[in-house]
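ok trying this again, last paste got cut off
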Amino acid sequence: MPRTEFKQLLDAGVHFGHLKRKWNPAMAPYIFMEKNGIHIIDLQKTIAKIDEAAEALKQISRSGRKVLFVATKKQAKLIVAEKVSAVNMPYVAERWPGGMLTNFPTIRKAVKKMSSIDKLIKDAAWDNLSKREKLQITRQRAKLEKVLGSIVDLTRLPAALFIVDVLKEKIAVREAQRLSIPIFAMVDTNSNPEGIDFIIPSNDDASQSIELIITTMCDAIKDGLSDRKVEREKDETSDEKPFTLKKSGRKAVVKIIVEDDLEEVDEKEDLSDNKISDLLIDEDLLDEEVLDEEVLDEEVAEDDVVVDDVVEETVAEEAVVEDKVIDKDVADKDVVDVK
């Protein structure tokens, strides 16, 4: 079911575009006809685009991220401030501070300065300041509040931008495009839709048209936040759900618990028996290893004895051979002497 009806859009004047001589040819697919030199926007396409953008914003808010609304036109300031603040989303209704996205750390420093001034006002040292110093600090605080008061809760870059009149907020569009931040925008017939991720072809000058579309987007964000809250509650209840028993099933549950305890005891006994058997097996293995070592020692001893006997026999034979050689040499010398 669409979030908006054809008659609602028609009554709010969403279908009115700009003069034909001011049109942008890129908006031709969203123009229904021309009447009295004024382009008429195709509301059927507007309805489809509104539903698409609303669903995307719902998913973003459901994930817990922020959507920054930008509308500095006179007819849109109060509407955006009222509707967007109701869903706790940041918005810029005054002048767009240059570099708000591309130079975000500097903007955060200015926001912290505003909070430090608040602490100073509450401190006792505030009374010691002169009247002139107090006046300067309060003026600075008011100036920061006017420009940055609506983005105090924006601690990081937004997940998306919703812009009313992309021609007037061209600096915001360029910064978002440079950082690849998705852009939702109300685009009139005199605007360029290129670079806009979610186009809502509509009249961005009439206050009724702006109020209808902003209200629809805020309702989608509210639905996403409520879904996120329900999911969190379900997670908390599932994690912290107490263990309760019905009266009719208490005996059966107690019996099951007792049986489980007995099974655990049996398993423990089995484990102890297994351990004992393992220990016995280890002792038998140790005995076998000791016996094997004794047999090896006896064999080694016998081998040593045999080797010693062989060595002694070879030494004796060598000694006999040497004696025979010596005797022969002596006999030869005696024969020579006789001659």
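PB: full thing came through this time. Residues 245-291, 333-339 have pLDDT under 50 and may be disordered.
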